[in-house]
Amino acid sequence: MLFSKPPLTLLTLLLTTADLTLSTSSPSPSQLSNRSKKFSIGIVLFPGFEPLDVIGPFEILQSVSAYYPQTISFIASQTGPITSRCPPHVMVPGQPPVNLDHLISVSLTATHTFATAPPLDILLIPGGMGNMVLVENNDTSIESFINSRYKSLSYLLSVCTGSVSLARSGVLKNKKATTNKSFWGWVTQFGNNVKWVPAARWTQDGKIWTSSGVAAGMDMTYAFLSKVYGRVGVVDNVMNAIEYAPHTDPKWDPFSVVWDVPGADPKRSLESCVKPVGF
Ligand SMILES: *[C@@H]1O[C@H](CO)[C@@H](O)[C@H](O)[C@H]1NC(C)=O
Ligand SMILES: *[C@@H]1O[C@H](CO)[C@@H](O)[C@H](O)[C@H]1NC(C)=O
Ligand SMILES: *[C@@H]1O[C@H](CO)[C@@H](O)[C@H](O)[C@H]1NC(C)=O
């Protein structure tokens, strides 16, 4: 404490004005009280989930839970191992299903079913090719689960194409959301009156947070935890501990240009700098 405090202040002063505002902001009373509150977190799994959509945010949450109490439940249609391998699915309408069995995969263990999941404060829905299969099969189990829990949740988060389930469940009505930019056209056909944001690393609208594709989920998780707990201290230290420099500008989105998302600015620079946060 004695020797870490002064350099912290000094280095803070050396940063840019934008960083100064963020770094010097001390946690609000609500953020302080959230630090001792035990948040119950649920992450949904389905066959064909995108590994990093789940593990990226989870990595950060696990580290943060060393300091701020949390519990985690992995929730799926059935308990046990859930594979990231996508079941065969129709890529082009009218064509036979594409078999993806040659892809390597990993399984995560579902601890609860949609019926047995405990009360939750935070629910995260990942994306992945598997949610195309769920849509094809008219499987609405994730959407029903979202609807049954939405009112009691403090926060609902989606990563990548996970926003499809939010759109289909109806909770995105008149709300801002974003998604994986390479699947923009497919995802944005779902939901009524969703305010899809074409260039966004992540969005927040009330208690709903949505991120762009895959790795963007880690940036959203950092922004989300900074909001809930305050970023100074544990949240920033975790970034330095896992040696990850999150993008902190929600409008930073070169992938909207790469993937020609309608509404994105094609003249936008594709290069941008990230740097470590905190100390
Ligand atoms: C899903 O619903 C559509 C429209 O009702 C139907 O045409 C299709 O056969 C259904 N698919 C499955 C796998 O049940
Ligand atoms: C979009 O999702 C697909 C499939 O999950 C993934 O392969 C791809 O990298 C994602 N694209 C972006 C821009 O994140
Ligand atoms: C603290 O958590 C509660 C949910 O339990 C939430 O309503 C409140 O907004 C949080 N505080 C902040 C600053 O996010």
From TrEMBL:
Which residues are the signal sequence here?
1-23
Q: What Gene3D superfamilies does its record include? A: 3.40.50.880
What would be one Pfam family of this protein?
Answer: DJ-1_PfpI
Question: Does Cytoplasm appear among the keywords?
Answer: no
Q: Which InterPro entries match?
A: Class_I_gatase-like (IPR029062), DJ-1/PfpI (IPR002818), INH-QAR (IPR052158)
Show where the DJ-1/PfpI domain sits. Answer: 41-225
Reading the lineage from the top rank, the first entry is Eukaryota
Per UniProt, the keywords (alphabetical) are: Signal
Q: What PANTHER family does the annotation carry? A: ARAC-FAMILY TRANSCRIPTIONAL REGULATOR (PTHR43130), THIJ_PFPI FAMILY PROTEIN (AFU_ORTHOLOGUE AFUA_5G14240) (PTHR43130:SF15)
Q: What is this protein called?
A: DJ-1/PfpI domain-containing protein
Naturally occurring in which organism (per UniProt): Arthrobotrys oligospora (strain ATCC 24927 / CBS 115.81 / DSM 1491) (Nematode-trapping fungus)
